[in-house]
């Protein structure tokens, strides 16, 4: 697979920007949008590279399932990727203001997010998992989290889930996911609740022997590739590329290289609009 990524470190202070600036995206005709129509030669793609195994840094390079997916889509559509990084909670504000064109970082498609940005068709099906200390016998599922302190990622749907669905619980939110896991391992939080693939991967690797998964999969979720609003042609082209990757086996090949098996929900993914 051709490597189309050129990496630029992004140091951004955009979290506090008003959502009212969303209408500014693409107004200057630069890299932040293509309101005049037509596809660009290069798009600024942002990711938060702490979401293993979707995107992370290894030996000075950014790798992962999401990185391979966006590279393959870029190859198919025919654009170069200018990869930038920021904290997860800065991704959507950056898309709104035109700092980024595309974002791929295990971003759950929600109605609230769709009001300010656009999404491709789903490219991954997920849910939420609970992780607790390996010697904990009191927490067996989500009902046992009431009134407890739960670590998760700042700006995530997991944080919203804790606040809206677990009575009396306190969400300890962190910019970096490893901080959430360390909080549980160090006794600062009772449990971690976050996207299933990341929780499972951490417990199989770094957290083996210190954390365990309890309870059922919560809140079935679809991940989509986020795009700054008003780039309908780009979204359409990426959807076509993704559909082609699913049909010709490229998607399965990438998935197997990171997760070790075929996706169980591939037919459902293909039927979701790709």
TrEMBL record:
Query: What is this protein identified as?
Result: Glutamine transport system substrate-binding protein
Q: Which residues form the signal peptide?
A: 1-24
Q: What keywords are annotated for this sequence in UniProt? A: Signal
Query: PANTHER family in the record, alphabetically?
Result: GLUTAMINE-BINDING PERIPLASMIC PROTEIN, MEMBRANE-BOUND LYTIC MUREIN TRANSGLYCOSYLASE F
Q: Which family does it belong to?
A: Belongs to the bacterial solute-binding protein 3 family.
Compartments (UniProt record): Cell envelope
- Species whose genome carries this gene: Ruania alba
Q: What GO MF annotations does this protein's record show?
A: ligand-gated monoatomic ion channel activity
InterPro entries xref list: Iontro_rcpt_C, SBP_3_CS, Solute-binding_3/MltF_N
Q: Where is the Ionotropic glutamate receptor C-terminal domain?
A: 42-261
Keyword Signal on entry: yes
Record carries keyword Signal: yes
Tell me which GO cellular component terms the UniProt record holds.
cell envelope; membrane
Q: Where is the Solute-binding protein family 3/N-terminal domain?
A: 42-262
């Amino acid at each position: 697979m051709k490597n189309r990524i050129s990496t630029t470190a992004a140091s951004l202070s955009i979290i506090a920007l008003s959502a009212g600036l969303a209408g500014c995206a693409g107004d200057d005709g630069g890299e932040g949008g293509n309101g005049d129509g037509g596809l660009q030669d290069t798009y600024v793609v942002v990711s938060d590279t702490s979401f293993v195994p979707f995107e992370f840094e290894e030996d000075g390079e950014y790798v992962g399932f999401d990185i391979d997916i966006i590279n393959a889509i870029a190859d198919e559509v025919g654009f170069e990727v200018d990869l930038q990084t920021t904290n997860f909670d800065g991704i959507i504000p950056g898309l709104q203001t035109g700092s980024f064109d595309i974002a791929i970082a295990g971003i759950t498609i929600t109605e609230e997010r769709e009001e300010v940005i656009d999404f491709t068709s789903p490219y991954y099906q997920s849910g939420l998992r609970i992780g607790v200390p390996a010697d904990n016998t009191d927490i067996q599922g989500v009902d046992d989290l009431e009134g407890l302190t739960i670590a998760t990622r700042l700006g995530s749907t997991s944080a919203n889930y804790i606040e809206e669905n677990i009575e009396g619980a306190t969400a300890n939110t962190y910019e970096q996911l490893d901080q959430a896991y360390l909080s549980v391992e160090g006794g600062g939080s009772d449990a971690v609740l976050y996207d299933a693939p990341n929780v499972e991967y951490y417990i199989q690797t770094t957290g083996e022997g210190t954390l365990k998964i309890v309870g059922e999969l919560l809140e079935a979720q679809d991940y989509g590739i986020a795009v700054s609003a008003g780039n309908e042609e780009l979204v359409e082209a990426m959807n076509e590329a993704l559909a082609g990757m699913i049909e010709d086996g490229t998607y399965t090949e990438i998935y197997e290289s990171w997760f070790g098996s075929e996706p169980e929900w591939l037919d459902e993914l293909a039927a979701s609009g790709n």
